[in-house]
């Protein structure tokens, strides 16, 4: 116990010494679906309090002790060197057509004559906690996920991300495969705790982490692939969580900016697109403990407040330091479509969804510098801290482009008891957003196009373990157009994540069943076609698409039981072998036929 000491003796539900870590440690809240919506934020909040912890020994020995005390043993990686992929990377012969071409058009023949703009970024995405593995290697510090995944039941299949895809060692293989199918961009995220194992600004830098990501960036460029770097994708450093409650404390702001500055200076010139935060609505729910003085209603909004300040300060430093390129954060979820288009209450309910889900961060950062009026009218300053005028001026305009993790769109309606009755009743299950969306009520009519019993689904349904996801291609263009209208930027808009969990993929017995991911392929072909039409026919400034995901990976609380990869990963093989699925090969064919530098007759 030499590295940490309790700075206060009052420990929530536990005892006053470290015994509570074993006996009274709060069980992290299970969050089964990652693409959670704003209405559920209070329901999936933290479950217990702990008192702040300070760190005294930040040496390598101290770090080892920190891991031992809080996380325990981690699974060793089966590979500890970086294999060099063959060049040129061999691509399999494309799969034969799945259906006759009078029913399904081959990818290269979709939308003949349509071309992507010359600077379009077409690629794939991963995130550190989900892909890298090697969680303890070369001086990395623990994250809240390294800690929380040890609790039985926290991860549906009781796995951890200790090894994951081992992207930490297999990044060259993965980037070479991305390049081989034609991709020109790789969006990945950094582990804050690889750079600063203890997270806090006055603690040691881990040079090995800085060097590692430098290799990833350089290797990507060597393959003709542009690296897009995200600073934070939910991997809150455990040290920051224990010291002051992570995003619940304003102390996170300067610690995050310190980390960001280090990264900016290290890779300036080698990265042209930067992202501060991935899906900030999620940053609070994925935290797992509740600092003293906050209840679970207030907590997500306190986190939102601190996160907006951290984003704004990071972007100001980025600009002051004259770092090259553009910077923004990634929004998520959808704006919504009124269930009954001519019904004003449904329209109001839909706008409430849009504001709580996307506007809450986008409105201050892109437009006004302040929270959306609609939300300020609902939430008192005791719940949602207010920005003062100088903060408002500081926050406004701190993004150069818009990025949306736009997996789907969906219908929204008013709650059965009406919006007003809900808005004023904090105990209402739909408070504060006060609407009903299709996937939260899968047994009600909103999952369907029409209200008849057993009506048609809103789109092809993904794996039943991912109930929020359908292939809603019909909304792609209006959704992106609306976002651009609401949050205009000079840098345009990126579909910074989109993807599909093929139904029952993890239950399939043979690899030839897995690689034939027809539902995912249909999703990507229809979304990419809509994106292309959005650019060419509608003039929407869509600048790039980053598919989720390059390979199967650790899907947060679902562990490895749900697969989003366009490539299969054999977790039982000692090399964590990757296999191309139909979807990635079809995407490559689609892109190669529609990129502006090819003359395919298209
Ligand atoms: C968006 C998140 O950014 C990513 O981490 C997650 O795996 C996908 N949604 C799929 O749920």
Automatic annotation (TrEMBL):
Molecular function (GO) terms for this protein are: beta-glucosidase activity
Q: Which GO terms describe its biological process?
A: carbohydrate metabolic process
Compositionally biased intervals (Low complexity): 1-15
The record's InterPro entries line, in alphabetical order, gives: GH, Glyco_hydro_1
The segment annotated Disordered runs over 1-20
Q: Which PANTHER family match?
A: BETA-1,4-GLUCOSIDASE (EUROFUNG), GLYCOSYL HYDROLASE
Family to which the UniProt record says this protein belongs: Belongs to the glycosyl hydrolase 1 family.
Q: What is this protein called?
A: Glycoside hydrolase family 1 protein
């Amino acid at each position: 116990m030499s590295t940490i000491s309790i700075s206060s003796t009052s420990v929530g539900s536990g005892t006053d010494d470290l015994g509570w870590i074993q006996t009274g440690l709060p069980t992290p809240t299970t969050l089964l679906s990652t693409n959670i919506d704003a209405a559920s934020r209070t329901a999936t909040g933290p479950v217990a309090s702990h008192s702040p912890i300070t760190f005294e020994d930040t040496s390598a020995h101290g770090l080892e002790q920190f891991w031992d005390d809080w996380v325990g043993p981690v699974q060793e990686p089966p590979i500890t060197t970086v294999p060099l992929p063959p060049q040129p990377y061999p691509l399999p012969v494309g799969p034969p057509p799945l259906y006759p071409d009078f029913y399904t058009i081959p990818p290269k023949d979709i939308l003949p004559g349509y071309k992507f703009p010359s600077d379009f970024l077409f690629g794939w995405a991963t995130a550190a906690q989900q892909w890298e593995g090697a969680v303890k290697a070369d001086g990395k510090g623990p994250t809240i996920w390294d800690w929380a995944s040890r609790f039985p039941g926290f991860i549906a299949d009781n796995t951890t991300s200790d090894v994951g895809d081992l992207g930490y060692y297999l990044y060259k293989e993965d980037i070479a495969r991305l390049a081989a199918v034609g991709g020109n961009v790789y969006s990945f995220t950094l582990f804050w705790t690889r750079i600063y194992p203890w997270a806090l600004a006055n603690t040691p830098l881990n040079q090995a982490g800085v060097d590692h990501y430098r290799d990833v960036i350089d290797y990507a460029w060597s393959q003709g692939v542009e690296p897009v770097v995200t600073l934070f994708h939910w991997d809150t450093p455990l040290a920051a969580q224990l010291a002051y409650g992570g995003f619940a404390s304003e102390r996170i702001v300067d610690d995050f900016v310190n980390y960001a500055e280090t990264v900016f200076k290290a890779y300036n010139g080698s990265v042209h697109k930067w992202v501060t935060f991935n899906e900030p609505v999620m940053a609070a729910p994925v935290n797992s403990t509740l600092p003293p003085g906050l209840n679970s209603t207030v907590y997500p909004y306190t986190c939102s407040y601190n996160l907006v300040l951290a984003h704004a300060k990071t972007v100001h430093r980025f600009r002051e330091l004259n770092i090259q390129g553009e910077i923004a954060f990634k929004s998520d979820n959808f704006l919504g479509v009124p269930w009954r288009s001519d019904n004003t209450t449904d329209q109001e309910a839909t706008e409430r969804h849009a504001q709580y889900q996307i506007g809450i961060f986008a409105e201050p950062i892109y437009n006004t510098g302040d929270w959306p009026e609609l939300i300020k009218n609902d939430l008192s300053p005791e719940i949602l801290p207010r920005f003062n005028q100088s903060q408002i001026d500081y926050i406004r305009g701190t993004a150069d482009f818009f990025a949306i993790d736009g997996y789907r769109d969906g219908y929204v309606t008013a709650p059965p008891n009406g919006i007003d009755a809900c808005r004023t009743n904090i105990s209402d299950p739909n408070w504060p957003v006060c609407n009903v969306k299709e996937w939260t009520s899968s047994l009600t009519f909103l999952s369907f196009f029409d209200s008849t019993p057993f009506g048609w689904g809103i789109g092809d349904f993904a794996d039943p373990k991912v109930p929020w996801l359908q292939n809603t291609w019909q909304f792609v263009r209006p959704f992106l157009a609306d976002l651009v209208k609401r949050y205009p930027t000079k840098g345009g808009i990126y579909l910074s994540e989109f993807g599909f969990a093929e139904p029952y993929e993890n239950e399939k017995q043979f690899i030839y069943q897995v690689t034939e991911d027809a539902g995912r392929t249909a999703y990507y072909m229809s979304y990419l076609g809509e994106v292309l039409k959005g650019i060419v026919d509608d003039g929407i400034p869509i600048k790039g698409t980053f598919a989720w995901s390059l390979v199967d990976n650790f899907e947060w609380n679902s562990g490895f039981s749900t697969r989003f990869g366009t490539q299969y990963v054999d977790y039982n093989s000692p090399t964590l072998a990757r296999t191309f699925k139909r979807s990635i090969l079809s995407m490559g064919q689609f892109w190669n036929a529609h990129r502006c530098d090819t003359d395919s007759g298209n």
